[in-house]
Amino acid sequence: MKTLRILVLLFIVSLTANSQHRFVKEINDPNYGLLIRVVPSNDMGFVVLSLDSLRLTKFNSCGESEWNKKYHLANTHSSLADFIRTDDGGYAILTRILNGSVYGSLLTKLDSIGNIIWSKSFEDTSYNHFPYTLCQDQQGNYVIFANVAYIIAPTTYNMICKINGSGNLISTRFYNYGGTWGGAIVTSDNGVLIRTGWIFIKTDNFGNVQWTTSVLGAGYNYFAPVEVSDGYIFSGYDSNNKINFCKLSKQGNQIWGGRKNSNFNGTPPKLRKKNNGNLVGIFNYTTIVEFDKDLNIVTQNTNSFSSRDICFIDDDHPIIAGASSNKPFIGSLNSAYQTNCDIPLHALNFTLETATANVISTIVSSYNLNTVTRTYGTDTVSVSVTPICILTKALDLGNDTLLCKGTTMVLQNRTGFFFDHYQWSTGQTTSTISINQPGLYWLLVRDDCNESRFNDTVWINIKPAVEANLGEDLLLCENTAHPLFAPDCDSCSFFWSTGSISDSILVNEQGTYWLSVKNNNGCISNDTVNVLMSKCECEFYIPNSFTPNNDGLNELFKPVYYCDIADYSLSIFNRWGALVYQSNNIDSAWNGKFNNILVPTGVYCFVVSYQPLIKGKANNRVTKTGIVNLIY
Questions:
Q1: How do beta strands 116-123 and 127-136 pair?
Q2: Is 393 in a helix, a strand, or coil?
Q3: What are 267-304's pLDDT values in tens digits?
Q4: d(Cα 597, Cα 586) in Å, to the nearest integer?
Q5: Across the beta sheet with 127-136, what order do the strands follow?
Q6: Which whole-number Å values give the CA distances from 501 to 492, 498, 598, in the listed order?
């Protein structure tokens, strides 16, 4: 191996599919806050919102900050809040706002670079709001899920509030199971599924209840369910603080027959959906697990960081955000959720426990809220990051190599690391190349997120080889033999497919034969030849009589042949010239019948035409005529 010392070229190549940026970086801002959400941006980057400090930072795919905003949403309570990327490429923040002595729900719409477009609160003087989740339906309307509590009497409701893209209130629906934390999602049929404790309320697009199911023994949980292709999965924990999961069908029926209890204690994870339909959750803030639609584990990994949220940019590349040692961080992982600072896996497993789901009824009512337009200030702030988990890569093409003539080898980085960009001396930009010529080969690599470049070279020299050449495939006449010869080489050793080690063999059977030749420098050459056998003479005999009288002897009339036939036809006529039999199949025979009735005894004329195959090639057509006696 040698190092390339002088490179005078412009290194511009395309991104390879194998590489994934891996980093963990600490956010250097003591006021950033620890209640963090992360969502993908529309340019392969991501944004992080601190719900408790209302700081929003846009990071590129390398984890470098591009812009930072601080929102002064006065009188808000951000611990009950949500944050989403909107369909138009912008973002939206849901918070709780205090108006006098009553809390309402505040929705703030941002553009793609974090500027406030509008901010509106939805409130009245009778109910305190406890907003939990924000999502968008298929028309781009915003859907707020909250609990509301009547301030005069201890009456609580679940609330679904729909708002159009301009912030105008469309409708508000109250449902009679309020008081328990939960969440809601917009479903694939553009309805809404409300989760409030262990009760699930499915509505249509207009807020009408389609079904309500109570899952007994599901435990308490704060998080919304997740929709999969055949139902909805949600988390909880039992009386022993064990995290568990249940699944309902699209009609609200229990699917697994119970709940899947895990071996993890603590707060259940938020389940996030990947582009491929799989689900991902972070258990105890350190173990990341990917599931299929039935919660079968696809992959899992444990790292040393306290992750609070995870998202996926367009290529299913996972991004985590959280807080370790009271300092916020961001991280970019590979598809196996590795950070380069991983610790021994805390493996997740499940046991199934019986749980039932009961259909119950729900009371729904409409309500009118006041819409108040709010105006808030925004500051541009500075945010820097410091890498805290660094992957040190290396490049090694291996030692200079002697390659046998006529063989091919693959050049690649032998350290196992992948890079974003490759530039070979051959002009190729793939992670590997195949070569069969002598010379000096070099590779220059770099990553998008690291200015460091690595290069390496390797010399390839060619060793002479003795070519094994058995010639073209052979077509031999039956019962003949043909010699196959090894190349003329006194210092070579030979090994034939027949087991022979001599310099020639005699073949007299059809088959595939191969020869391996090894010379004194260790180079090996191989060759094969196919040998086919063919009849080289054609004997074609036509009988002059037959007796189709059912005595089992000489019942059929057909030619007798001892060669290969390429084309054939046989026609038989009675003495008046009428056709009584015709066939193009040489293996078919006349049984003496015409229209399934035996013809009379007598003399019949035939015309037969065929092309014999001699050594695999069709000879000239032969046509014969004659008579055959039909005798009973």
A1: unpaired
A2: coil
A3: 889 999 998 999 999 999 999 999 999 999 999 999 98
A4: 22
A5: 127-136, 142-150, 156-163, 169-175, 364-366
A6: 11, 9, 65
